[in-house]
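[step 3/7] fold_predict: job queued, chain A
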Amino acid sequence: MKKTPFTDIHIALGAKMHEFAGYNMPIEYSGILDEHMTVCNGVGVFDVSHMGEIWVKGPRALAFLQRMMSNNLETLEIGKAQYSCILNEEGGIVDDVIIYYYEPEKYMVVVNASNVEKDWNWFVSHNEENADLENASDNMAQLAIQGPKALATLQKLTKIDLTKIPYYSFAIGNFEGSEMNNIIISNTGYTGAGGFELYFHPEYAKGIWDAIFEAGEEFGIKPIGLGARDTLRLEMGFCLYGNDLDDTTTPLEAGLGWITKFVEGKNFTTRAILEKQKAEGVSRKLCGFRLTERGIPRHGYDIVNETGEKIGVVTSGTMSPTTKIGVGLGYVKPEYATLGSTIFIKVRDKSLKAEVVKPPFRKLD
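[step 4/7] structure written:
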């Protein structure tokens, strides 16, 4: 298995380790519930160095990304980030990504860990514009510092005013624990609890880690594993590639029409297919649901109607740590996706009643 710059630290701290996307990653430390609530109420640190980073540069960078991506990069400003999808020839999602407009003619595309090689090969094989591509994944480390105390923790370590970095924006500068002067500090979290992500060269990993944990000691800072990362993102209704999105799901089916822009002059991959789907309607829709009976929905469980007919499948599910209610996401026939509709989740030999609701499932202040 591959290692991140923090793998030895995780092992030394007693983390429960497991393979994920080819990496030896921490699944949990003190327990998923404790870690989940730490992020909701205080501050936690995630090692997300397994994620991939691809630079797209040069005078044809924008043209290349406009054709590859579902969203409209013409509206993106330097210092801002944008959520988008890479699309295949059938309108399916190759990956969901975040694009950072770093400087003129230079973008960083952050891709899912399990898709780094796949996305890189897709870009290279579809580079009709001859954009300058660089796979920097092995030369980039990333930490996500999340929770309501993340800002107070990190502000001790940089002169950048973190309150001036809005959601889906970033700044570049120095950070304590590193001599690197171009660390990216980004506000694009995956937990819904607020916070920032740091991108830096691997050789500065330990110094930055130590500085963050010293700064956050007064707030009860803890390392957080991938288990709590999953429950946190699910409580917010954020999609996970491989569960809720894949090569067979289109952004319109997945409720991502808001990042699929049919603007004039943007001839992105399979635009015609998705325009047709938008006009005619989809055959399935991703929806959120919460159980009204005691139980835990899991990935792969069937969704049925009141007569027992299968109408869909659960793609993500858990017992919400904050509400103690079973919640999840799943694809269903469109007629069952209306808010307030009653559906049933097949849990072993029982059909548990559920209501279609709009995430987030977490109670937010």
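[step 5/7] annotate
The chain is about 20% helix and 30% strand.
Helices lie at 7-12, 32-41, 61-68, 116-125, 150-155, 205-215, 226-236, 271-280.
exit 0
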